Structure formats: structure tokens, C-alpha cells
């Protein structure tokens, strides 16, 4: 039975013996049964998922110890989610390089390579390396957020280059997930 005004249970959290668990979510008290212990041996796949979940939990705990990250995650938390929920979800989702463009790339000083990169929370950085046909790096550096373009990152060549055939784009989010893509020049 739903209670709309119950001052006795307001703000309660914890366990009542081994029978009930009280939690607070979005200002509401949630009452549930305690989790049942598992007695089976997990498969390799299940163990990998459990390990990944433990890593996400550790990341969230570490991130929320930083007041700036905690405020950023808390600002994104909506509809009963906590900053911890958002941080853990961020750990599981790598950034996505949606597209990249070199325009009329000729290897000239000032040529620009742009990348449209999204993440469920925030793209931390985008690194671009210009490679020749043997895979040697001719030039590399951090792209900057493009003026007026949300999620658009731009890298401007600081040297004139000859023999450039490919740009390798690497996007990183706050938990350190990395996604890479190659762009033919």
C-alpha cells in the first residue's frame, strides 16, 4: 500500500534485521527484500561482467571523491538517478566518433581535420596523428573544441607535410575509455 504521508519512515535507510532493506531514491523511501546470495559458480562471461561492474564501481567512487567531477555527474543525474549511477554508466560507454572530415586536405600549414565525437557524458580529449603510408607519424597533437560546434573537434596542421595518407583519431572520455578511427586523406 502506497503511503503519501508517513513521517515515521521518511528518510529511513538501512536494514531491518535480515528481512527488509530501506533505500532512498529521488526523495522516496523504497522498501525491498535483501538480495539472495548466489551459490552457483559463475561462468567466465558472468565473471567478466562482474569484474567490469566492480571496475565501474571503483571508478565512480574515485570520481565522486573529486568535487568538480561529483558536481558534473550530479548535474546530469535526473529522474531518480544519483551521481554514482551516472558515473558508473559513463564507465561502461566509450565515446563514439560519428564522422571525420579533412575537407580539401593538401598537407599545407593550417589545413584542418575535424571530428564529430559524442559520449553519453563528456568527451575529455581528441588526439589526432597524421601518418604516412608506412604508418610513421608525421605530426600529432590534441584537437580543440571547434568554435560554435557542439561535439566538433578540430586539429590544425602546424607544419607543411608531404606523404600524409591517413589521420588516426582517438577520442577519450572521463573514465579513460578510448575509441579510434582512421580517416584517409
Shape: elongated
Please count the beta strands (DSSP E, at least 2 residues each): 11
The biggest beta sheet is recorded as: 4 strands, antiparallel
Strand content: 25-35%
Tell me, rounded to a whole number, the average pLDDT.
90
Radius of gyration, CA atoms, in whole angstroms: 24 Å
Helix content: 10-25%
Give unreliable regions as ranges: none
Structural class: alpha+beta
Q: Taking strands numbered 1, 2, ... along the chain, how are they ordered across the largest sheet?
A: 4-5-9-8
Distance between the termini: 65 Å
User: What is the chain-wise order of helices and strands?
Assistant: EEEHHHEEEEEEEE
Please give the count of helices: 3
Summarize the topology:
Layout: E1 14-16, E2 20-25, E3 28-32, H1 44-64, H2 67-76, H3 83-92, E4 96-101, E5 112-118, E6 123-131, E7 137-142, E8 144-145, E9 152-156, E10 166-173, E11 178-184
Antiparallel strand pairs: 1-2, 2-3, 4-5, 5-9, 6-7, 6-10, 8-9, 10-11
Helix pairs in contact: 1-3, 2-3
Task: Briefly summarize what is shown.
The chain is of the alpha+beta class and 185 residues long.
Describe the structure.
It is a single chain. With 185 residues, the protein is an alpha+beta fold. It contains 3 helices and 11 strands; from the N terminus they run βββαααββββββββ. A hairpin with a 4-residue loop joins strand 10 and strand 11. The radius of gyration is 24 Å and the shape is elongated. The mean pLDDT is 90.
